[in-house]
Amino acid sequence: MSFSKRRILIIKLSALGDVVQTLPCISLLKRALPQAEIHWVVDKRNAEILKNHPQIDKVFLFSNKFFKNPAKFLNFVKQLRREKYEVAIDYQGLWKSELLTFFSRGKLKAGFLKVREGISSFYSLKCDVSFEVHAVKRYLLLTQAVLRRFGVEGDIVSLPKPELPFEEYSLTDEPFIAIIPEARWETKLWPLTFWEKVITSSFFVKQGYKFVILASGKNREIKKWADELNKKSENVISLVGKLTLPQLVGVIKKAKLVLTVDTGPMHIASALNVPLIALFGPTSPERTGPWGSRFKVLKSPLPCSPCFKRKCEKEAECMRAIFPSQVISAAEELLSAV
Predict the structure, then answer these.
(1) Helices (H), the chain
(2) CATH fold label, 176-337
(3) pTM of the predicted model, to two decimals?
């Protein structure tokens, strides 16, 4: 049996944005090896984004709880080992993903030479790529290295368009702008008063745009704010805590513009090539910024940015240094080009 007809295991557990940024690699693999069978190990919290993916044949749901239950972990490993993979590719670079790569029984075990945790000792193919390279390109370079090992050239000059399954969600027929104000790090958040100034700006009012606020609902302050805006303004729709991941993709797909902090749904908008404006303070857009063709990044001008810190003694001044007027101007420019 040729390599093109065998199984490839992808190991990318989390987070949502990281999983989405890995999807172009699936497109590259299928473009180079259309007959290959692709399986993916993912944290069950992010599995929904891979549901019914046309290029993925099997999804294994992993949980950190397996490490506390030896019987469950061994059962999971047995499932992987039954598949007899030609290659296992670890895009995560953490000790737990390295461990799964080792136990997968892949004939070729591929990963990065430089990893965030662990020592990459389990890899038989180590790809030396700097952390300063954008995540999407890092993942594609690793994929390309795997393909070359098997005598296949994977072209990454033209970025492979990722597949992203979605579900329709009944929403307004009027043109709308999606706002994504939530992120796991509190240092990534933009002041809610700033968001409100954008929503109520004369530019958007004159253009007749509605605003749809998207968030998981885990941040109670954001949920309360969004719900209150929904009640007092006909131009604001709060879908905070109301959508599945496929529905979130469906809503973002319909947006005329996405205004977002550095968070997982930002990468969904980028993968869909929806026009977006991304606000960056503690993190680096060069590493994890948007990667479509229609976006603008507004980056904090403070010298301490990016610091890559989840907590800040200065109350995330870097995000406060990005002003609503900048977002509105960037929105005018992007919307006029649509």
Answers:
(1) 16-32, 70-81, 95-103, 135-149, 192-199, 202-207, 220-232, 245-254, 264-271, 285-288, 317-320, 324-337
(2) Rossmann fold (3.40.50)
(3) 0.91
